[in-house]
Amino acid sequence: MSLPSRRAFESPAGPRLTNMASAVTLLRCTSVRLPAVTAVVLLLMSVTTVQASQGDKEPVYRDCVKQCVRTNCTGARLRGFQSAQPQYMALTGWTCRDDCRYQCMWTTVGLYQAEGYRVPQFHGKWPFARFLCFEEPASALASLLNGLACLFMLLRYRGTVPRQSPMYHTINAFSLVSLNAWFWSTVFHTRDTYLTEKMDYFCATAVILYSIYLCCVRTLGLRRPGVSSMVGVLLILAFTSHVSYLTFVTFDYGYNMAANATIGMVNLLWWLCWCWQNRRTLPYWWKCGLVVLLLHGLALLELLDFPPMLWVLDAHAVWHLSTIPVHFIFYSFLIDDSLYLLNTEKMGVKVE
Fold it and tell me: SS3 for 125?
């Protein structure tokens, strides 16, 4: 899953390459075939998100794209490339214009490097070497591995904890929300479109909100179910308002980042308070505290924001890779706590 701040930042201002416009004619672009799928999929998957950054502001880049589209995306050339395009590229929505942008991006990067300037960003992100249909291979793989780790530990949880445990169903629901978020994170890093970007961001927000609900149920809901129900309704309303504003009013990256940072801080402080209160009674409390601190601490890796090494591995991918072991610690905590709650319920002991 991705942080909401990724497109809120742009690379430092770079040089204008108007004096190199003649280099456009040296570019050899390829074109891709429109997806041979239904009109609905075309509408959802072929609309690429456009966010102005230094690279795509360059006249050399813009002229390159225009020339490439005019030369390769019509008539016999387009039909010829359509027949040669791999099916997986068509099914993931790569259009002729998308391919022109990809090729022109590397032309612009080469010109920047030849002049000794810093690598620019394009449409809100760093240039990545495409692998098959994957736009960001490292981040896509890391998101997939996070999802698999989550699924593996969910199955382990279900195999270890009886269904009678008080938190069993709440934790299962949280796991499904998390799996959904990692699925969309994988899809988004595979193919960045208007739909996949929004789904990635919205599902990430849902995970944080559900983590707050999970904490509420654990700290208050077991003794006061009405309180957790009220908090759950408020969280649903907050999520609905958040998504509605970003979808129907304006997608404000700054607001999205601030909103997620705020609810993330609520989640952090609430869990840490619970850990502190139970540090002397629950021997496994440290697992919860460690997970919360790791998740928020590792997110700071995003601040390193550097051009991808080997055009594949950037700070965002490193962050996703670093969170994979956290799933094992967190579910270890959930298993210990669920078994503890089950035992205390059988013994009639008051749960704290």
Answer: strand
Say how far apart CA 344 and CA 337 lie, in whole Å. Answer: 10
At 313, is the secondary structure helix, strand, or coil?
Answer: strand
- Cβ neighbours around 56 below 10 Å, total: 20
CB within 8 Å of 129: residues ≥ 6 apart: 137, 310, 311, 312
CB count in 10 Å sphere of residue 283: 11
Three-state DSSP at 134 gives strand
- Spatial neighbors of 330 by CB under 8 A, at least 6 apart, are 153, 287, 288, 291
Q: Give the pTM.
A: 0.79
**Alpha carbon 174 to its chain's center:** 17
Residue 206 token pair: 């849902």
DSSP helix/strand/coil, 163: coil
What burial letters (b/e) apply to 57-86, b meaning 16+ CB within 10 Å? ebebbebbbebbbeebbeeeebeebeeebe
Residue type, 226: G
Question: pLDDT tens digit string along 285-332?
Answer: 999 999 999 988 888 887 787 888 888 888 899 999 999 999 999 999
